[in-house]
Write a structure and sequence with these properties.
Elements (H helix, E strand, L loop, with lengths): L17 H15 L8 H14 L5 H10 L1 H11 L10 H21 L5 E7 L5 H13 L7 E8 L2 H9 L1 E3 L8 H7 E3 L7 E4 L1 H4 L2 E5 L13 E5 L9 H13 L1 E8 L13 E5 L2 E4 L4
Length: 290
């Protein structure tokens, strides 16, 4: 999940002229669909200060021109102003519903229909990997491979830097506190030697997850097929209404007819689409007549 966090001015922060700030607003919106409000001036300065120094202490106006002309620099700009906040089993009611309601139903159906034992999941805005690996743990436990279940998880994010971290499937050991004991013991490896103080997802999880860079604001998504579950949580909240609706319609086009869309608890689809019905708070299914 990429988001623009709150920020407060710091001592010595230069003033950003409105004209320059509008240029950054427009560029970031075109590139990522993120609306950078006027209150984010101090954040912009703080997040770009290191890159400006790396480039020889150039000014904000000089850097804006460089980013407008250079696609790679635009990517660095967007990555600089976004932060990635995520946890294992974040918004636990989603995973409780999966464990208690949906997955037992799928497993029962699979017991009589071997053709239904395939599950595809999309974690859109996967950040450093906690969400897709939480999904991998839950699905692997409740839909065991020895019963013929095949699980595929696509994890995407705008940031190439955070995707590289996610691919490593390696986290500080204090992250273990976020994971229920039964899952922690079954699926996580405790680092030793040079990896002491870290934990890593086991190979049975890593083989389930595929990572790919994807911009939800892009005109086309390089994604194929339909998904049974689409998680896009705490991402759309940072888009304006037009960008949010456009991304939502594209996500829904990849959702299978019996699939479910999960959004964050601070988000709402009210007024954005009539194609879905509410299953439980922040969980949606496509309407039967769509």
């Amino acid at each position: 999940m990429s988001r623009v966090p709150e920020s407060v001015p710091f001592p010595g922060a230069p003033e950003v002229p409105d004209r320059i700030f509008r240029g950054y607003q427009q560029l970031i919106y075109r590139e990522a669909g993120i609306h950078l409000g006027p209150a984010k001036k101090a954040l912009l300065v703080g997040r770009l200060s290191r890159r400006l120094r790396e480039l020889g202490d150039i000014s904000l106006s000089e850097y804006l021109k460089r980013a407008e002309e250079d696609a790679a620099e635009r990517m660095k700009l967007v990555e600089a102003i976004c932060t990635h906040e995520t946890h294992f089993f974040r918004e636990p009611k989603h995973f409780q519903w999966l464990e208690r309601e949906l997955l037992p139903r799928w497993r029962a159906q699979g017991a009589t229909d071997s053709g239904s034992r395939s599950v595809r999941v999309w974690s859109a805005g996967c950040s450093s990997g906690e969400e897709p690996f939480t999904l991998a743990m839950v699905l692997r436990r409740h839909l065991p491979p020895e019963e013929g279940w095949r699980i595929e998880i696509l994890a995407t994010d705008l940031s190439t830097r955070v995707l590289e971290r996610a691919r490593q499937a390696l986290w500080p050991l204090d992250k273990a506190r976020e994971i229920p004991t039964e899952y922690l013991k079954s699926f996580m490896l405790k680092g030793v030697g040079s990896q002491e103080g870290r934990m890593k997802a086991g190979p049975e999880l890593r083989e389930l997850v595929r990572f790919q860079r994807l911009n939800l604001h892009a005109d086309d998504y390089e994604v194929s097929g339909r998904f049974d579950l689409v998680f896009c949580r705490n991402v759309l909240i940072y888009f304006d209404a037009a960008s949010k609706q456009r991304a939502l319609e594209r996500l829904l086009s990849y959702l299978g007819p019996a699939g479910y869309l999960f959004i964050g608890h601070a988000e709402s689809l009210t007024g954005l689409t009539h194609r879905v019905r509410l299953v439980m708070p922040t969980v949606y299914a496509v309407r039967a007549n769509q």
